[in-house]
Structures are given as C-alpha cells and as structure tokens.
Amino acid sequence: MAPIEFNKRRILFLVAGILAFFIVFHGLSVLDSDSIRDVTAHISLPGIQSPTGHKTPPEFESDADDIWDFDSESSPVAQSNSSTTEPKPAQHFDLHPIAQLMQAADDRFRAYESGISTSFRQTVEKYRSRYGRHPPPGFKDWYKFARERNVFNIDDFEQIMDDLRPFWAANPSELRTHAAHMGEDPKFGVAVIHIRNHTIVQADNPSWRSETMETVISKFVEFLPDMDIPMNRLDQPRVVVPWEDMQEMLQKEYETRTMPPEVMDTFSVGQPNLLDMTIQDRAQDNSTRLDDGWFFAPGKQYMDIAAKACPPESPARSNMTIAEADMLYKESIAGFVTNFNLSSDLCTVGPTVQNLHGLLYSASSIIASHKLVPIFGECKVNVNSDILFPANMYYRHDDRYDYDPSEDLDWRDKQDNIIWRGVTSGGVQLENNWQTMHRQRLVQLFNGTHVSRSGTEVKVLTEKLDEPEATNTTYELYDRFHPSRFADEHSDIGFVEAWGCVPNCAFYDTVFSWKPQVSLTAQFRSKYLIDVDGHSFSGRWRAFLQSKSLGFKATIFREWHDSRLLAWRHFVPVDNRYDDLYALLTYFIGYGDSKQDNVMDGEELNPQVYIAPHEREAQKLARQGREWANKVLRRDDIEVYMFRLLLEYGRIIDDRRDFIGYSGDGSELDKFDAGDEHGKGWSWGIGGWKT
Ligand SMILES: *[C@@H]1O[C@H](CO)[C@@H](O)[C@H](O)[C@H]1NC(C)=O
Ligand SMILES: *[C@@H]1O[C@H](CO)[C@@H](O)[C@H](O)[C@H]1NC(C)=O
Ligand SMILES: *[C@@H]1O[C@H](CO)[C@@H](O)[C@H](O)[C@H]1NC(C)=O
Ligand SMILES: *[C@@H]1O[C@H](CO)[C@@H](O)[C@H](O)[C@H]1NC(C)=O
Ligand SMILES: *[C@@H]1O[C@H](CO)[C@@H](O)[C@H](O)[C@H]1NC(C)=O
Ligand SMILES: *[C@@H]1O[C@H](CO)[C@@H](O)[C@H](O)[C@H]1NC(C)=O
Ligand SMILES: *[C@@H]1O[C@H](CO)[C@@H](O)[C@H](O)[C@H]1NC(C)=O
C-alpha cells in the first residue's frame, strides 16, 4: 500500500491488461505454451520475485519436468490410448479459461523456484538487495537452523518483511513500552510472552495459543534477545492503520534504509521499557504506559473501520461499481478468480462482500485500534497491520486439524463429489441476518431441494457445439444452469450443528437439517474439498492441501503461508460470493452424457449443457498441492518462520537497530554450505529439493 506497493499493483494491473489483450488476440491459445511463457516469465508477482539472473541449474530442470508429468502413483483417467488413436489432427487444444489459468500459474511457479539462493553468500546478498538493510543479528544461526530443517526456499519470508515494514517508522522504545504492558488488562484480549536471558520467563494472560507459541519459541530461544511478545487472543484481527498514515510510515521505512559497512552481530542488552519482571504485583509497576487505542466494535460494519486503510482510488473508497471491481481480479466469462490476492483484498472486494461475510457485518468480537501497535496474530485481513505468525493449530497436534492418511484414498478410489462439514459459525446469527453469511450461503447453494424450490440459476461454461469442424474445444457461457440435480449427485455439504445464534437457533429448524459428522480424514474419501472461513481463518487448510484430494478455497483472511501458495497450481481459488463454484465443479467433474443427447433419468435438465470431465487437471492440482504442502508447510517450516520473525522483531524494537546486524559477505558458512561440517559432501541443491 505504500507508494511503492501501489505502484507494484498498478504494474500488475497493466500486466494483467496486456495479458488479457494477448489472450483475446490469440483466442485463448494457452496451451501453445511457449509464447505465453515468454510473456509471463517477466511478471513479478507481488510477494514473488522473478528470477534475478540466476541460471536454472540443469538437475532442477529435470526434476521440474517430473512434476508436470503424471506419475504412476494413481493412474490418470484421460491418458488412455483410445483417445489418441482417433483419427484427428495431432494438435487439439482445450481452450478453457481454467487451462489457461493453470498454465499461467505453472509459469509463475517456475519463476518462483528458479531464483532460490543455494548458499549463505547468496542469501545474504539477496537480503540486502531486496530490503536495503543488513540481515538482523543471529542471521547466521537462523540460516543454519533453516538448512538443517531442509527449508525449501530460504529467501521467501516476504510476509514477515511486509508485516514489519511500517514498524521501522515507530520508535523502538515506544514499541517496547506498548508490548510490555499490552496484556495487563485482560479485557483487551492480548497475551504477552516475556523472554529474558534466553528463556521464556512468563506469559501474561495466557491461553492454549500462547502455550503453543511458547513451545515453538523454545526451539531457538537461546538466540533471541530480551523481548515482550504480545499475541492476539481473539479470533478476529486487530490493527487498522489509516492509509495516509501508512503511506508516511512506509515512506519513512524506505528513507531509513541503511547499510553501514561494519555493524555488530549482537542485540543490545539491558534495554529499558521492557516489562520489569522483578515486580510481582503489576499494580506496583509505576512505569510509563502508552495508550494502545483499543476500541470495541462487535457487530458493526467492518468496512467502516477497514476502508480507512484503503487507497483512495480503490473500490472501497471510490464509487467503482462491482462490475468494475470484478474486472480487477476475475476472468470475464465465468468469473474465475485470476488474482487470489485481490480476491481477498477488502479494498477491492470489500464493497461487494461486506454483507456476505459474517466477520464483516456480524462479528462476535472486534477490538480494534487505528494505532500501529505491535501485536502478533494467526490471521488478518489485508487491511490489518497485525504481525502474522503460523497459526498454532498448524503446530500442535490436534485430530480435528492434523492430516491423517488413514482414510485418504488414491484418486481413482475417491468419490466424484465435493464435501464440506462444519458448524454455523462465522458471526452472530439472528433470525434476519443468517441468510447472507458465508457458511450458510454455501450450504444453501448446494442444497438440491433449496435451489430447486427457489429456482436458482447459476453460471457454467458449456462446450460450443456450433463448430463441428473445429479441432479445438471452445466454451461459452450458459447462465441459466439449474444446479439441483448436479448438487444432489456431486455434493455432500452441510452443517453438523447450530451454534452462535441469538436468542437461540430455532430459526434454523425449517431451513437446515443436520448432517452426520465426518472426521477430517473421512472427508478425504471425496475428490473435492471446499474450505471456507469460520469466525476466522480455517485451520483445516493445511490438511486439505496435504491430502490426495483437491482443495477449493474461499477466504478473506491472510495467513503466514500466503506467499508460498499459488492459486491454480496448488489449489482452486473460489470467489467469496461463490458465483464461480458450479462453473468450477462442472469443469472438473463434467456434465451431461454427450454433446447431443443429454437426458438424465428420463428428465431433461439443462439439455443445452455439455462439458467433458477434466479429472486429469484436478488430479494434477491435487498432487501439486500435496507435494508442495509437504515441502513448505511442515512443522519445521513453522519453526524456521517463527525464528526469522523474532529475529526481525528483535531488531526493530532495538534502540540500536540501524547499527546491528550481519555485515559480512557470507563466506563464514562456505564450509557449512559445502557440507563439510556434516561430514558428507552435500550441497543444498534447490533448497532441500533432494529430500
Ligand atoms: C486451435 O488452437 C491453437 C492454439 O491456440 C491454435 O494455434 C489453432 O489455430 C486453433 N485451431 C483452430 C482450427 O482454430
Ligand atoms: C497405442 O497405440 C499405438 C498406435 O496406435 C499402438 O502401437 C500401441 O500398441 C497402443 N498401445 C496400447 C497400450 O494400446
Ligand atoms: C543468565 O543465565 C545464565 C545461565 O543460565 C546465568 O549464568 C546468568 O547469570 C544469567 N544472567 C542474568 C542477567 O540473569
Ligand atoms: C509505585 O508507586 C507506589 C506509590 O507511589 C509506591 O508505593 C510503590 O513502591 C512504587 N513501586 C515501585 C516498584 O517503585
Ligand atoms: C465517481 O464520482 C465522481 C465524482 O464524485 C465522478 O466524477 C465519477 O465519474 C464517478 N465515477 C463513476 C465510475 O461513477
Ligand atoms: C435443504 O433444504 C430443505 C428445504 O429448505 C430443508 O428442508 C433441508 O433441511 C435442507 N437440507 C440440509 C442438509 O440442510
Ligand atoms: C498481495 O498484494 C499486495 C499489494 O500489491 C502485496 O503487498 C502482497 O505482497 C501480496 N501478497 C501476496 C501473498 O502475494
């Protein structure tokens, strides 16, 4: 959101525009991949750097090629000989927008992978060139810690840098003062963990969340300076800094970038304004407090708070129509999400979804501040300045959220349907407001009885039939699709219980029936999984990715791993309105018996619609998501992320922050990188690719 950030965004729009033009011009000739790859290879995605002159190592190329091909683990459906023996020209292209989106994501992914540092020297150099500062003290120890855990991309901690950037505009001692006392009044919902002399000595206002965080921190606490770490105890995010203030802060951060030739590779000791641990009775602590600016706004329109943090030109603060805002992140025919980042950006979609998501109009608790105070949180929406850390649910072992392979079948043995189970959470529900909440909308949309009675019509893309001689398959919009039968046959979506209603949930009696609970692992018997928000982010997401099923995702929340996950490469992005869901599902599952004859059970339903199944694409995405989650979302990755985060935080709250850090050239770890210290001649390859 800085001038810099916003320019980035403009460039992105421009590139998107050029790309759109290119597509139109070339009639969606996406599988003619070489030409489009040339175009996309130069796009620098926000948060994803394009290759910076590093040549792709040859061994990596061959590894990467394996990825595109199907392995034999579970044999693909569309690969049989029969389809290729038909006497048709060799070149046949399926010109569906999804094919094009997947192709573009593959290209971006290649670019993401190809520039990864393979040594400490490169890592340090990249750090300096990206951020204009030396790495923080302890960076060497962190680097070794990360390598020993086989981190895949040693460079991608973009989220941390983005989150902390504005704090360079704040005074370190004021940050320490805020942090020290934030847990003193429990009604503000903040826990504070205190680290002294390389040990966690105390937690104020603790909860299971802070206990889990302590477990993570204990893995590397010996490298951390004294600090107080305030942690959000609520489900909902906290800090919203007005856009104009944020611009000034980011500008200041930019101006204060500095790299003195020699800096100290240690943190300051004995800094003032940390919490005085010698005072047992907090009431006796007479040290200065600063106002954190908390205010309570449960159930209020969140966009009234959030819009302040948006750029004036953005849909949230301008009179842009919904259709205009859609063009920023949606494909124009079926409305597929082309930019997942923007699809969850409240400055872009806020006006569209403000009455369609529980957090935005009926949050059970909101304690917000317009001041830039340091508070660590598991999730936020894009307008928040909370400091993200990996959600505790992803670290602790909890059956409800942990991947368990016991019932995860091979793709071909899975059911051809989409499943979702949950409770009616998401916001405070009243008799006249539940209808537009995000979970309730989903359940209603896949209730065959309901959509049939209400005459619901949705958009799908159907194969074009009018060009029998055409060698390519092309598609057109059909926006009067009656989804009831498809929903009955291919979805299993429902609530297991009601929860969170005022005065009680009796108003659901005639609307929902409760479906049986299905354990997380039993859900993997379905090919397709959909993940939507609850009160806050969904803790199941990692397990969904790890499974052999394909995850669909709609959310307004940001999490620690966002810069690592690529829509259309690792999962299927879904608009928060769900207006693309049937078009997505009919693409993967297929619809209709044949082009001519489309009678189901004697009853004609959507006879105009035919779309062949695209199982192979679904399976490919599922496998890519699974492989990737097992590389970059491991508990090890959480430890590495957290260690780096707290080093960066430790420096930002240090009075001497411009004079501490690592100023060497990285050569100290040449031996380590060469593997000598391990007594075996390994090299890191591409960030632990070889595990
Ligand atoms: C089919 O699509 C390819 C790739 O976009 C294109 O080169 C070719 O001209 C198309 N063929 C026809 C008959 O339109
Ligand atoms: C596939 O088709 C080719 C040529 O049409 C044929 O030679 C080959 O035996 C077939 N393979 C299988 C597995 O049917
Ligand atoms: C820090 O801990 C070490 C050993 O754990 C101890 O020797 C030292 O005195 C402690 N320092 C302070 C300032 O408490
Ligand atoms: C804080 O002030 C109170 C009242 O002036 C005094 O009794 C108390 O000793 C002070 N606490 C400390 C730790 O100095
Ligand atoms: C938005 O409002 C301004 C004046 O307030 C007007 O000039 C402009 O045309 C409007 N834009 C749209 C897209 O309605
Ligand atoms: C589907 O809708 C019908 C009619 O509104 C309702 O009776 C039924 O309980 C709903 N089913 C589920 C699973 O919610
Ligand atoms: C999303 O976009 C914003 C603004 O362009 C950018 O700062 C951020 O890094 C992006 N996030 C990801 C995960 O790409």
Automatic annotation (TrEMBL):
Residues annotated as transmembrane: 12-31
InterPro entries, sorted: CAP10, O-Glucosyltr/Glycosyltrsf_90
Keyword Ion transport among UniProt keywords: no
Keyword check for Membrane: yes
Keywords carried by this UniProt record: Membrane, Transmembrane, Transmembrane helix
Domain annotation Glycosyl transferase CAP10: ranges: 342-656
Compositional bias segments (type: Polar residues): 73-86
Segments of this protein annotated with the region Disordered: 46-65, 71-90
One Pfam family here: Glyco_transf_90
Name of the protein this chain belongs to: Glycosyl transferase CAP10 domain-containing protein
Organism: Capronia coronata CBS 617.96
